[in-house]
Write a structure and sequence with these properties.
By secondary structure, this protein is mostly helical. Helix content is 76%, strand content 0%.
Length: 203
């Protein structure tokens, strides 16, 4: 053993071995440090990417929430519009039914007033006829006049206008007691008012 240690060729070998071990340790330490630095850099980049992804995810979630809120508001407005449309259709139907019933009532009333007017006119005509007959009996008969013979030549200077003979002119006493029936004027006024109302309703 002592001889091996005293061998002059062993010393350089030991020195070379120790130098190799030292360099290997240093290289391993440097390599480990570099590896840790690279790993830290990769981890940092990964964290940054993860943070950016989380931010994008949060932004998308906020946008989705906003879209859902807008959708809910849209659905609410749509429901309100549908309700208003339905109510408007119902009101239109009610107004149409009311107008139809009103027009039917006005037509019936107009027909009734026309019948009343016709009856009043007939009664008035009958009354006027009766008064005319009475006046005819009370007035004297017209005297017949014999026409003068005409010749081929006539002189206009001898023309005298014909005059009613005495007693043929109707007197005021003959129309005494006769007055227009006020119901006729009322019926005509009511009929005109109903016609105007029906025309306005049709417009």
């Amino acid at each position: 053993m002592t001889e091996l240690l005293n061998d002059p060729a062993l010393t350089p070998s030991l020195i070379g071995f120790l130098v190799g071990v030292v360099f290997t340790s240093i290289f391993a330490a440097i390599k480990g440090k570099i590896s840790r630095s690279v790993a830290l850099a990769k981890e940092k980049v990964t964290e940054e990417k993860l943070t950016a992804f989380q931010n994008k995810t949060s932004a998308l979630e906020n946008e989705i929430s906003s879209l859902r809120s807008s959708e809910n508001r849209f659905l609410k407005h749509q429901g309100e519009l549908e309700a208003l449309t339905k109510a408007d259709k119902e009101r239109r139907g009610e107004m149409k039914n009311f107008l139809d019933s009103t027009q039917a009532t006005l037509r019936d009333e107009l027909k009734r007033q026309e019948m009343v007017l016709k009856e009043a006119i007939n009664k008035s005509q009958v009354a006027q006829g009766a008064l005319g007959v009475q006046a005819g009996f009370s007035t004297p008969a017209a005297r017949a006049t014999k026409p003068a013979p005409q010749t081929g030549l006539q002189d206009d200077r001898d023309f005298v206008p014909l005059q009613n003979p005495a007693g043929e002119t109707p007197t005021e006493n003959q129309f005494e007691g006769f007055a227009p029936d006020p119901s006729i004027a009322k019926a005509e006024s009511a009929a005109n008012a109903l016609r105007a109302a029906i025309e306005e309703g049709n417009l």
